[in-house]
Design brief:
The chain has 279 residues and is α+β, with helices and mostly antiparallel strands. The chain has five helices and 18 strands.
Length: 279
């Protein structure tokens, strides 16, 4: 079984091409849990699978978190898989990728940078206060796509001076909070300067902080744009793995597009030889 490992701003993934491997879909959860383990196997935040399209796209993207749960979509993963698709002849420099939550459009900017159109928001709730750890947190709640990928956006002044350890207990409490029926990716954020945001995401399915979360970044910029905290035009977002940029297109108050731009990195390619994995 061949694999490629990539990361987008530090959010890392193992990619399998099921157009050639023909692995039964019910095997992917255990493959994800096994291969994504950082001490016992290759290690990654998630597993992405390239498969045959069902709705007229260039190809289909399946995404599994490191705990084996199936995800609706992944923004950084989509950028990586767009580069994979372009460089493996599955599509051109502009491509249409099917995801469980909807169609993702990708565009090559240069060899390493890709821009994708995230799936449309299906839920926007800018005021969803949540009580956790003895305090009320002024959260916003966004779902991208259908079925929606859930995100809580949590203002956190002075975030640049805080560590993951400082926020891990709160991140876990909010991720599982009953105010978010699906659970949520928890995006702590702070507007550090005009159109510059610092962000840190506690990810559902990884159950810890990751170096970046593309859909979380898009959701964060969307919420802050609608609250007039940022312009929505080429907003720079600093995450532990680097920098992402988001542009929000609006038409008479309606959200038309959420564009996410950022880097990709091919880490390694090879053959899976994990003896604990029984396909």
């Amino acid at each position: 079984m061949r694999f490629t490992k990539m990361n987008g701003a530090g959010n890392d993934f193992i990619i399998l091409d099921n157009l050639t491997e023909h692995i039964p879909h019910d095997r992917f959860p255990v493959i994800a849990r096994t291969l994504c383990h950082r001490h016992l196997s290759i290690g990654a935040d998630g597993l992405m699978v390239v498969d045959a399209p069902l709705r007229g796209g260039d190809y289909r993207m399946l995404f599994y978190n490191s705990d084996g749960s199936e995800g609706e979509m992944c923004g950084n993963g989509a950028r990586c898989i767009c580069r994979y698709g372009c460089e493996h002849g599955l599509a051109g420099e502009v491509q249409t990728v099917e995801s469980p939550s909807g169609i993702v459009t990708g565009r090559r900017i240069d060899r390493r940078n890709y821009r994708i159109r995230l799936t449309d928001p299906s839920v926007i709730d800018l005021r969803r206060p949540v009580e956790a750890l003895g305090k009320t947190w002024d959260c916003s709640y966004i779902e991208l796509g259908t079925p929606g990928l859930p995100h809580a956006v949590v203002p956190c002044p002075g975030l640049a001076d805080k560590t993951m350890d400082d926020l891990r207990e709160l991140g876990k409490a909010l991720r599982w909070h009953p105010a978010f029926p699906k659970g949520a990716n928890v995006n702590f954020c702070d507007v550090a300067a005009p159109d510059r945001i610092v962000e840190l995401t506690y990810e559902r399915g990884v159950e810890d902080f990751t170096y970046a979360c593309g859909t979380g970044t898009g959701s964060t910029v969307l919420a802050l744009t609608l609250m007039d905290k940022v312009s929505g035009e080429d907003v720079a977002v600093t995450v532990p793995g680097g920098e992402l940029r988001v542009t929000i297109d609006r038409d008479n108050g309606s959200i038309r597009n959420i564009w996410l731009t950022g880097p990709t990195n091919i880490v390694c390619e090879g053959e899976v030889r994990d003896e604990d994995l029984h396909i």
